[in-house]
Every structure is written in C-alpha cells, then in structure tokens.
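Researcher: I'd like a structural prediction for the single chain below. Treat it as a standalone chain; there are no partners to consider.
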Amino acid sequence: MKNLFRLAAASLLAATLSAAALFAANDNQEKTDTLASSVITGTRMSVLRDALPAPVSVVGRASIAASDEAAVMPVLMEQVPGLFVTSRGVTGYGVSGGAAGAISLRGFGAAAGRVIILIDGHPQFESIYGHPVADEYMAANAQRVEVSRGAASVLYGSNAMGGAINIITRKPAKDGNTVDFKAMGGSYGTYRASLADNYKKGRFTSSVNIGHDRTAGHRANSAYNNTNGMVKLGYQLSRAWKAGAGVSLMKAYSENPGTVSAPMFDAWSDIIRGMATLSLENKYDRTSGNIDLYYNFGDHTINDGHTQDKAPQEFLFHGTDFTAGLSAYQMVPLFTGNTLTVGADAIFYGGNAYRNPTTEIYADHKRLHEEALYVFDQQVFGKFMLNAGLRFDHHSAYGAEWIPQAGISYMPGPNTTIKASASKGFRMPNMRELYMYASANAELLPEEAWSYDLTLGHHFLGGALNTELSVFYTKGSNIIEVVRENGKPQNRNVGAFANKGVEFAADWRVAPSLSFNANYSFLHMDTIYTGAPVHKLYAGADWTQGRFSGSIGAMYIGDLYLSTGDDAITSSYTDLKARLAFRCTDWLQVFVRGMNLLYEDYQTMLGYPEPGRTILGGLSITL
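Model: Treating it as a single chain, here is the predicted structure.
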C-alpha cells in the first residue's frame, strides 16, 4: 500500500507539471537537451536521433551543469529511462567490498561488465575485474552523454551487450577564452569545486578541467575525496584533417562504513585512474573517418577492513591494470542515400593483483588481447532508413565471435517516427573469472544476448513537445555463474535470463523561460538481479524569471531489489530535489540546492542507508 501511495504521489507530481504547462505560453524554440537532437553513438557518424533505428538517450551540457553534481552518473540516472546507479552516501562511490556505483541499464549490470562506458568512444574499465569505476566519470568534463539502450557490440565490442554510455568531453565552440568556476558546500562536511578553461584561436583549441569533491560522510567511517583533472588539445592541420591529444588523471580516497548491522573499521580504498589519447580525424565532402590511440591505467590500494570482533588486515590489496588500444574507422557513401562504415579495433590489456606478495598473488602480470573488424551500412530510401552491421571479433582467450545487427526506421510525416532494431551483444569473461580465486575457469566462453526494440516517437506543437515510447525484449545465454562441482566453486556458462519492459520519455519547451521533462521505465526480469528497479519515474521542471532561476525534480523508485531469493528484500522511495539560483551580475550566480527533501529513509544497497535531507549552497562564475 505504501508503494502504491508513493507511485501515485510521483505520478501526481508529473501530472501537475504537465497541467501547469497547458496554461503557459507556447514557444517553438528548440531546447538544448531534446529528444529531437542528433547523435553519433549508434552509427559513428552524426545522425538525426529520430531516424536512428536503435533507441538512444541524450543528456546535454545544460542538464549536466545545472545538476551541480561532481560525477556524471547521478545526472544520467534522472534523465535516462531504464538506467539506475546504486549509491551509499552524499557523494562518491568507492571500489572493492561495499562499493556503490553499480550501473544497471534495462537490468544489465555494468559492474559485471555488461554495459560499456566510453569516453569519446574509447572503452573505460578496470581490466582485471572488467568493471567501470564510476568515480572516474566527472560531470565537469562532459559536454554531452549519449546512452544507447540495447546491445551495441557491433561498434563497441565486448561489454556492450546491454548498452553503451558514451561520454563526449567538452571542447570550445567559438574563438576566445571562457572560464567557468563553481564552488559549493553544505551538509555532512561536503565541498565541491571545479574550474574549466576553454580556449580557441584560429586552428588551435584547448580545454582544461580541474575538480575536487569531498565529504565527511553521513555515517562514521564514510569519508570520501576526489581530485581530478583533464587536458585536451586540438589543431586543425588542414581543411580536412585535425589532430588531437588528451590526458586525464583522477585520485580518489573512499571509506566503507560497512552495513548498519556489521559496521566496518579501517576499510578504505585509495585509487588512481588515468587516460591518455591521440587522435587524427579527417572530414572530406564525401568521406570522413578517425584514428585513435588510447591508454588507460589504474593503481589501486585497498584495505578491506575488519568488523569489531575481528583483527585488522595483515596485508593491503594492491592492483595495477592497463588498457592500450587502437580504434580506426572510415565512412564512404557508395551511392545516393548510402553510408558505409568500415572499422577496426585492437585492444591489449592486463594487470597485476596481490595481497601478500609472496603467497597471495591473484593476477601475475596477466596479458590478453582482442582484435576486431566491422562493417556498418546505412541506407535511406525516401521515408525509410535501414542499417545493418556485422562484426568479427577475435580474442586471445576464447577465439572468434560474429556479431550482427539490423534496424529500420520509417517517418510517415515530419513529426512521427516508427523504428525497430535487433542486435546481438556479447561480454568476454574478465580476468577474475578466467584466472583468479578458487572459482577460476580458463575455458569460459563469452556471454551472449539479443536485444529487440520497437519505438514510436512523435513531436507536438511544432517541435516544442517531444515524446518517445519504446518496448524492448532482451534474452541472454551463456551467463557466467558460480556452481558447486565436487564441493568446490567453479565459474561456468550455465546462466540465462530474459528481460522485457517499456520506456517513455518526454520534454516540453513551453516557453523560453519554462520547460518540463519526464521519463518512466518498467522492467520485468525473469531472473531477478539486485540494483535494477521494476519502476522508475522522473518528472522535473526548469524555469527562469528575471535574475532568478530554479528547478525541481522528483524521482520515484519502485521495487528495487536489494537482495534475491525466496526472502528477497525490495526498496521503494521518492527522492525530491530542488534548486534556486540568483544571477547577481552577468558573470556571477549564487545558488542553493536540496536533495532528499522529503527526508525519505531508504537504501539502494542492503544495509547502507542513504543520507537524510542534504543542503548545498555555492556560487558559479563565468568569464
């Protein structure tokens, strides 16, 4: 009954926002973050989102900046249907035991490597355990984020069996120099600051971002701090060729307080993550392409801590990992309405992990490699767009894998789109599953999944109101699970699952000073996984009036599984947020924001209660 009340309350808020819009003045100005934008994640080239057969969500810079978040994941959770991220504190996620930041998309978990995280198209994951590190993806660095909801392995290979989250980093759009500074502080000893400098002159561009995020935490032994930076340089070599380079570095310290029933002491992680890239881009009248070299690395020191009745850990965990890769593709039109993309990927990765360096060596400088070739063809026939792709992937551990994809979209009129897609995704076993601990099995095969989508999109009021409804079905096989054989644990390809659901999203630019957005997702899982809610509803509004501006948003989570089995525990809650800002001058703004304003008592991880009402205040400067 309580869950029904919460869902009704959240639905009432959405209805109230929509009703308010009916009485506001209509305006046809295009919104920056809109369902009608263009995307590159689904095809490697810029395509009108309406025409793309696969469902892709877009979160633009306006939404990211207005969130005041240090990490980009909380913003995506609000704006993308079907996407959920676990948390355990005011800010920060952590790694190792008790870590939050588990990303679920349509029931697929990124913590298991089934949703790939990309930065400018480059895969990002801790190569030993095969999962992304949520603390690494900073909001200040992101210009926009494109989320492909459904298998995307044709273009991005392993780990994209459930979807792809592509974080596109910031770059200057016009000549001159722009400096953005933001600082805030508030509840639980929380402080955040970021500085961004974007510069363009002639053929040269540069972007520099520096950030710091820290909190004392709302529980004992739950402190967190993160210092990060990114530098990107670009130079236009000629009319058609452009070179680029970038580096980023992040150092984060986080404490694990343990569950309420079993508090932890001296449980902490100290990690460094870094990335370096080189790129060469060409863009001619009839063909374009890109060559990227990238290198990611990590250095993790972890104290797994102890409960009150146990002794401290004798040794710390140490792990180093790296990923080196090359990605190249070229797009060529074969005839009118056609674009053929031919690409190649190569990736070399590995690492070292140990506790006691003489007796507990888990991964002794293991090395793996993967190579792939793919073709992706797109053809426009009048009101139809068809695309199809095929990837051949070869991995040093398990051999070859063929990955197909196909889709079609139909636009009967300028405001309506009907589209459908079918795509295969796969996930290669990670190094932990292959070689580490008692359950290791070097004979594992890749996990596989098929995604099927049917989507209807429509624009009302001359494009001021944009809506999209998707129905999906995904089926996975060869899922790696731990089974008991002769009394011993063993990783085996024995699991299977089937997920199905509905997703809806809408944005409404009612007037230049007023806009609304909402999204809802329903997920049915034949096999229950934690961290994936059955219901997720978000409704929000943004407004400006003179020097004042504000936003309000409510997210309802229904039947989030905290545990599985016959005695499964679920959580349902509504998180209400609001922000009020005043522009003192053309370059100075002060603001205050509140989270969990309803003071809900809830958890997204079993035993880890979320913070109560949280208030932050600060200022932003743009020069």
